[in-house]
Amino acid sequence: MKIFSASQLQKADKISIDNQGITSEELMERAATRAFNEIENILDENKTVKLFCGIGNNGGDGLVIARLLKNSGHKAQVYAVNYSDKRSNDFLANNQKLEKMGLKPIVLKAEEDFPKISAEDIVIDAIFGIGLNRGIKGWPAKLVHHINHSGAFTIAIDMPSGLFSDQVPSENDAVIKADLCLTFQGPKLVFFLPQTMDYVNEFKVIDIGLDKQYLESLDSSYEITGRLEAAAIYKPRKKNTHKGNFGHTLIVGGSYGKIGSVILTAKTALKSGAGLCTLYIPKCGYIPAQTAIPEVMVLTDEGEEKLSEIEFDLEPDVICFGMGTGKDLVTKEAFGRLLERTKKPMLVDADGLNILSENKELLESVPKNSVLTPHPKELQRLIGEWKDDFDKVNKVKSFVKKYNLIIVLKGAYTFVFSGEKVFINISGNSGMATAGSGDVLSGVITALLSQGYSPENAARFGVYLHGKAGDLASADIGAEGMISGDIANYMGRAFKTLI
Ligand SMILES: NC(=O)C1=CN([C@@H]2O[C@H](COP(=O)(O)OP(=O)(O)OC[C@H]3O[C@@H](n4cnc5c(N)ncnc54)[C@H](O)[C@@H]3O)[C@@H](O)[C@H]2O)[C@@H](O)CC1
Ligand SMILES: [K+]
Q1: CATH classification of the domain holding 487
Q2: What percent of the chain has pLDDT over 90?
Q3: What pairing do the DSSP bridges indicate for beta strands 415-418 and 421-425?
Q4: Between the chain's N and C termini, which has fewer beta carbons within 10 Å?
Q5: Domain containing 118: what range?
Q6: Which stretches make up the YjeF N-terminal domain (predicted)?
Q7: Which of 187, 213, 239 is the last residue of a domain?
């Protein structure tokens, strides 16, 4: 699923109206009716709905919803948030229809007019949608705070009012905090960025029937990775195969006290379908690794406690480097030599990334199309500071183009940057914020690379599977109870959900 900008959606509205031979009022009726159907599904008859309508088309949607609520016998109070006297045509048309039914919106013009909102009420926010072009100021801003402080379950129509679709609000801007956002046609980029995601606790996409062909023709850098997209990438195994078909992964990492990290990565690689897996670790890790995973082969470095040479006599299909290595000079130098010798795309994580950040000249030697998996702090060390999330996204886009790499930026929504594209993953949960979760992610992506997935698909699919395995683990044992080894243990079941 592509993510469209506000201007693309506004244009798609117009084109759909023309192609379908309908009026904009009819499109509004369709969009708002579908939103109403969702609202009705979760409405409890005893609840009072307080609808706050702006005076543009987002407000028009609110008025349609008010009419439908009244028709189906719900208790609804409708307020027109009169921040200006320039009402849109479709707002006016729907206001008339509502008045004909004997329901006249109460006009709010100042703070004295604000109604009491109790925590038991349901608020529908139809004040501003994608037409927002400046921060909300004055008494409407106070109304937004009044709604946010009420404790009422708040449903935003299309966008939480005050949230821009293409910029981060400033600290002084008033923005609705929506428990649920019913968003038209597709989610907006700001729903996924760390600085703005908290305004949308949950969102549901309402298909308002815009012209499919036109939408498909639109260019967008941003795409969602959900179940459908993951299933399209998945290549089920053929019957006539042997372990050699699924590749040999070499996982290089670990140091004294941090052998667990590479063990987790290797275990996950095997549980994600890698045919063979060899661990390359300092000597001190030999017994723990052999004991923890009998299926893995273990090679040891000359170094007792840290990697110092990285010499091996095998031809892996993919090399993964960096978890638990530390950044010692001998390790850095051995990593540099490994990069020089490696031609196939590899995966670099954790201290591997920190070594690259401290020795930027090494970035030129990272094989093209390699996958780097930083968390935000590691990313900052790699690319420098950013002003806000939009600036960060642009900086990462330039970085991946400059070095021909793929960046997996880990977070509540993990972003995969590849060429012009940014893929936003929607599986996963807060239980995955636990030690070693990143080591597991490296394991699954490495295993997919070894099985012949392209680096972009391996990154995108691996991130999805990692999140899905986390969701299955959380459903069974709870977000607090799960540890990263559980994510590895649920990997097979994550694949099975795609069959
Ligand atoms: N035919 C269509 O175009 C459809 C539009 N729909 C709805 O229409 C919405 C967009 O409607 P509009 O373009 O009328 O815009 P909004 O309803 O979001 O905003 C109304 C107007 O307020 C003004 N404004 C913006 N920021 C302001 C601020 N901070 N303070 C005061 N005034 C401000 C702008 O002039 C803007 O056009 C969508 O989000 C969606 O809810 C849907 O009904 C689907 C169909
Ligand atoms: K809204």
Answers
A1: 3.40.1190.20
A2: 96
A3: antiparallel
A4: C
A5: 6-213
A6: 9-216
A7: 213
* Residue 162 Cα: closest atom of ligand 1: 29
- Say which ligand is closest to the CA of 207: 1
User: Could you tell me the pTM of the whole model?
Assistant: 0.95
* CA-closest residue to ligand 1 atom 45: 28
Neighbours of ion ligand 2 (CB under 5 A): 125, 156-157, 161
pLDDT at 153 over 90: yes
| Mean pLDDT for the chain overall | 96
Choose which residue among 25, 94, 130 to substitute to test ligand 1 binding: the one with the highest number of ligand atoms within 8 A of its C-beta. 130
Q: Is 33 in the pocket of ligand 1 (CB under 6 A)?
A: no
pLDDT tens-digit profile of 442-484? 999 999 999 999 999 999 999 999 999 999 999 999 999 999 9
Q: What is the CATH number of the domain that holds 83?
A: 3.40.50.10260
ipTM over 0.95: yes
Residue 223 lies in a domain: no
**pLDDT(245) > 90:** no
Query: How far is the centre of ligand 1, averaged over its atoms, from the C-alpha of 128 (Å)?
Result: 6
Query: What pLDDT is recorded for position 438?
Result: 98
Token reading at 374: 């930083």
Contact between residue 406 and residue 456 where contact means Cβ atoms under 8 Å apart: yes
The neighbour count for residue 146, using CB atoms within 10 Å, is 18
**Ligand 1 pocket, residue 132 CB under 6 Å:** yes
What is the tens place of the pLDDT at every residue in 106-143? 999 999 999 999 999 999 999 999 999 999 999 999 99
Same domain for 278 and 412? yes
The residue among 209 and 85 whose pLDDT is bigger is 209
Q: Is 130 in the pocket of ligand 1 (CB under 6 A)?
A: yes
Check whether 438 is labelled as a binding-site residue. Answer: yes
CB of residue 184 inside a 6 A radius of ligand 1 = yes
What is the distance in A from the centroid of ligand 1 to the CA of 488? 46
In a domain, 414, yes or no: yes
Does 288 lie in the same domain as 182? no
Measured in degrees and rounded to the nearest 5, phi and psi for residue 2 equal: -85, 155
Neighbours of 68 (CB within 10 A): 19
For residues 355 and 433, state if they share a domain. yes
Contact (CB, 8 A) for 163 and 133: no
